[in-house]
Amino acid sequence: MEGGFDDEGTFFYIPFSGLQSMVEVFRRRVIKLVVQRELLNGDFARNLLSWRHSGFSIDNSVRIPDDSTQESLAEYIARPPRMHARVAAGCDQADQDRTVPTGIQS
Q: Which contiguous run of DSSP H or E holds residue 83?
């Protein structure tokens, strides 16, 4: 999907070229949001903006071929992690241990 939706739900096609410019816009908006929420002070934000290698990137190499796959991905992204939901609800350690998938260290 190359583009995005506006507030009314209309999709606008935007071909992904000049990704470095998009990365810079995204980086500045994220840092501005964090400063506005007072999670970062202005001096540190200016310091972050001065970094040559910002740590931000955009990867457009993966294509999602069909509506079914797009829907599955959207549902996955929107679903809160089970572990977080159970911890927030105050379950005991035994319940938390059961929610960790096999092969993943907690």
A: helix 82-89
| Range(s) of the domain holding residue 5 | 1-63
Contact indicator for 56, 30 with CB cutoff of 8 Å: yes
Q: In terms of domains, do 42 and 79 share one?
A: no
- Measured between alpha carbons, how far is 16 from 3 in angstroms, rounded to an integer? 8
Q: How far apart are CA 22 and CA 16, in angstroms?
A: 9
pLDDT tens digit at each of 106 positions of the chain:
577 788 888 888 777 677 788 888 889 999 999 999 999 999 999 999 999 888 887 776 777 778 888 888 888 777 766 655 555 555 555 554 444 444 444 4
Q: How many domains does the chain have?
A: 2
Query: Do 11 and 55 fall into the same domain?
Result: yes
Which whole-number Å values give the CA distances from 57 to 19, 26, 66, 80, 84, in the listed order? 9, 9, 25, 24, 27
Q: Is the pTM of this model over 0.85?
A: no
